[in-house]
Design brief:
By secondary structure, this protein is α+β, with helices and mostly antiparallel strands. The protein folds into three domains: 40 residues; 440 residues, Alkaline Phosphatase, subunit A (3-Layer(aba) Sandwich), CATH 3.40.720.10; 153 residues, Jelly Rolls (Sandwich), CATH 2.60.120.200. It is 24% helix and 21% strand. The strands form five sheets. Strands 1, 2, 3, 4, 5, 6, 7, 8, 9, 10 and 11 form an eleven-stranded mixed β-sheet that branches. It is globular, with a radius of gyration of 30 Å.
Length: 767
């Protein structure tokens, strides 16, 4: 407030105080008492919006844009029509038409690392996220713990006057911090986001997601037969935007959107799948050719670009029998519908921002993938988690289930052939950090007020760590030197704002290292050195990454990484290898390991559970993620003490997992039932039933797994008496769904939701 305004305010207040004294005298109060009251008022005269004692609200820099940051999941470089792909994405296309398409933008080759780099502006090893959070180890670059010295975009923008929100996938919480007791410091609301609505983990069932709102579990509407998560998430985004605008339309917002598309499970509404019927009957080989031709015609690729050769081991489409072609084409129809449906839902958000008059000053950064398209399953999968039960899916097991794909009866992915085609023209794909198919994705930047080259193409080399400094540069803020008293580590990214108005400007990012599960690469001024791919990404990798040979590519002349010139330029290769070694030492890249499952089963990471052998649980609506609940093992007992009101009680007592892998202990019309479901396949499900309905009163119902002379035995007991037994070959590893006491599985919408009588307690003992 100006000096003259403050003086006028004080004069007005003194005048008012004289009126107060006169009024008090009229009420019979002494002048002294009245004057004392007036003096107390004069001690803190109001000074308008520039308060003296109220905390001053933080304001964003004048003219700061709203920010919408979209990060897709497992979408290949060439999936969308904006990049020559076969999947229509009109909203993405419209953003490209009003902004810029980047054709040399790169990620880390895997999801958690890319997300950590995106949110912090630092290299993924530098913030402890060398790989996905589930395979962390006790090494500086691999803990999965984003340090306090790397504040996120959400925190920095919130501290600079933004309202912040996060919708969709969060795969950056250390496993042992995902439980109902947190800690919540590394959950979105602890990382600077005012609101979170989404899921924790690698992927979510679109029909039956394990939703979290802030830190609270939410169950989907059981009565909505048309429910699907992307629509629900979009409804929540629109609600949040409406509240934000109503609260203060002059305050900018940061909306971070991270959908599950196209990560498994690939699912979509049936009417959207139907839109693509017959669209992929040409097969993956011809689809690659069609994409490649469109990319050149659109200027996405230079005219002299070559296409990487067919992927080793992938069958030629023409060699497949007709029934397999029909099956695989349908899998691609589902995947396409998933991406197209999300694009449609995002359109609702963009439309709302436009209706609010905010779109012209909204910076939209749309990253069309956290890595290249996935190469997980050679033949595709109906249940991506079946591998944890030791089951290998084949065309023979998948063909009878063709009509299930895309529905809530599926939890899978398309075959490798489609994933590779969606990485055209580049070699390989997700997890391979030495090949562009795993690293290079499409990215669009739209900002109608400021970007004048509408529909322009940018070829500057860039990386996901460049997004945060670009946003800071655009907003006009300097990243803080300290946050909560913690000195901040250097930001590794470089602002890309220079490229907005300079299509021919040289790349300011001249160098960048890459590493994922032992696969390594180094880029420098157009040259790229990387390790050979001597394993199959769709299978286990037991190779020693230090034994892999190095290749060299001149990307200035070989856009698509198709000609290895290591033999011609040994000195250049040696230079880039030395550069990688220096970066590896600086950013904590070592130790290397190629074995994903070895790290998944690493025994020494922190445990979400204290080491007690026996635990007691009580009925509640609390959900326990798999890593925060006692794991099934070959010598395990769950004992439930219940009080029944009659002989026809039905309801869940103990549940864990989902229809694709899990178990339940329940009552069905008074009869106790233990269901053991290792893979979602009917032939492997074991259902143990009590011999009769239980009467009213107290009972002890026990489910157990115990070693037997051959394999294992599961048993059901009531009040200490055996009811039923069965043999099983192995104990399942629960990796999806969650555990609850007295509540149904997350995807059970037909049976009782809650146990209607009393569960005094459930005691689980792991021997």
């Amino acid at each position: 407030m100006s000096y003259s305004r403050k003086m006028a305010s004080k004069a007005a207040w003194h005048g008012a105080s004289r009126l107060i004294i006169a009024a008090c005298a009229g009420l019979g109060l002494s002048a002294a008492m009245a004057q004392q009251g007036a003096n107390s008022q004069q001690a803190s005269p109001p000074v308008g919006p520039d308060w003296t004692y109220y905390p001053q609200p933080t304001k964003a820099p004048k003219g700061a844009p709203n920010i919408i940051l979209v990060l897709m999941d497992d979408v290949g470089f060439s999936a969308s029509t904006s990049y020559g792909g076969p999947i229509p994405t009109p909203v993405f296309d419209s953003l490209a038409a009003s902004g810029l398409r980047y054709t040399r933008f790169h990620t880390t080759a895997m999801c958690s690392p890319t997300r950590a780099a995106l949110l912090t502006g630092r290299n993924h090893h530098a913030v402890g996220n060398a790989s996905i959070s589930n395979v962390s180890i006790d090494a500086p670059g691999y803990t999965s713990v984003m340090p306090d010295s790397a504040a996120t975009l959400g925190r920095v923008l919130r501290d600079n006057g933004y309202d912040t929100s996060w919708f969709g996938k969060n795969h950056n919480i250390p496993d042992w911090e995902t439980g109902p007791m947190g800690p919540f410091k590394r959950w979105p609301i602890g990382l600077g986001f005012d609101y979170f609505y989404g899921f924790n983990g690698a992927g979510a069932d679109q029909f039956n997601p394990t939703i979290v709102e802030n830190i609270n579990p939410v169950r989907r509407d059981r009565t909505n037969d048309n429910y699907i998560f992307d629509r629900d998430m979009t409804d929540k985004m629109l609600g949040w935007l409406g509240a934000q605008q109503a609260q203060d339309p002059n305050k900018p917002f940061f909306l971070y959107v991270a959908p599950g598309a196209m990560h498994g499970p690939q699912q979509a509404p049936a009417d959207w799948v139907a839109k693509f019927k017959g669209k992929f009957d040409m097969g993956w080989d011809k689809m690659r050719d069609q994409i490649f031709a469109r990319q050149k015609a659109m200027g996405i690729l230079p005219k002299d670009a070559r296409m990487a050769p067919p992927l080793p081991g992938v069958p030629r489409w023409d060699s497949l029998p007709a029934d397999q072609k029909a099956l695989y084409a349908h899998m691609m129809e589902v995947a396409a519908a998933q991406l197209a449906f999300f694009d449609n839902q995002l359109g609702r958000v963009i439309e709302r921002v436009g209706q609010d008059g905010e779109l012209d000053n909204t910076l939209v950064i749309f990253i069309n993938g956290d890595n290249g398209a996935a190469l997980h399953n050679m033949y595709g999968s109906i249940n991506a988690y079946s591998q944890f039960a030791g089951i290998k899916e084949t065309p023979e097991t998948l063909l009878p289930q063709k009509d299930k794909f895309g529905t809530e009866e599926s939890f899978g992915n398309y075959p490798v052939g489609w994933g590779y085609a969606l990485n055209t023209p580049y070699p390989w794909g997700k997890t391979v950090a030495s090949q562009l198919g795993g690293l290079r994705v499409g990215m669009v930047v739209s900002w109608p007020d400021k970007i004048k080259d509408k529909g322009g193409i940018r070829t500057q080399f860039s990386h996901v760590i460049d997004i945060a400094p670009t946003i800071y540069d655009v907003v006009g803020i300097t990243p803080p030197a300290t946050v909560d008293g913690v000195a901040q580590q250097p930001i590794d990214g470089i602002s890309m704002k220079y490229s907005f108005d300079a299509p021919k400007a040289p790349s300011q990012r001249r160098e960048q290292y890459f590493e994922m599960l032992g696969s390594r690469g180094y880029y420098k001024d157009g040259w790229f050195a990387g390790t050979e791919v001597n394993w199959e990404p769709w299978g286990p990798n037991k190779t020693d990454p230090t034994k892999a040979g190095w290749e060299l590519y001149n990307l200035n002349e070989d856009w698509s990484q198709t000609r290895n010139v290591a033999a011609q330029y040994p000195d250049k290769l040696a230079e880039l290898k030395a550069d990688f070694e220096a970066a590896a030492q600086k950013f904590h890249v070592y130790p290397l390991s190629a074995d994903f499952f070895e790290r998944l089963n690493y025994k020494y990471r922190p445990n979400a559970l204290a080491p007690e052998r026996t635990r007691t649980y009580y009925t509640s609506d609390i959900r326990y993620p798999a890593v925060t609940f006692p794991e099934l093992n070959p010598n395990w007992t769950a004992e439930a003490r219940v009080k029944l009101s009659g002989s026809a009680v039905s309801g869940p007592i103990l549940t864990q997992g989902a229809k694709f892998a899990g178990y339940t202990l329940a009552m069905e019309n008074g009869v106790p039932v233990f269901t053991y479901n290792p893979s979602g396949r009917a032939q492997e499900r074991k259902v143990l039933r009590g011999t009769q309905a239980l009467g009213a009163g107290d009972h002890v119902i026990t489910a157990q797994i115990a070693p037997a002379s051959e394999g294992l035995t599961i048993s059901l007991l009531v009040d200490g008496k055996s009811q039923a037994t069965a043999s099983i070959p192995r104990v399942i590893k629960i990796v999806t769904g969650e555990a609850m006491i007295g509540h149904a599985l997350i995807d059970d919408r037909t049976g009782p939701l809650n146990f209607p009588d009393t569960i005094e307690k459930v005691t689980i003992t792991s021997y």
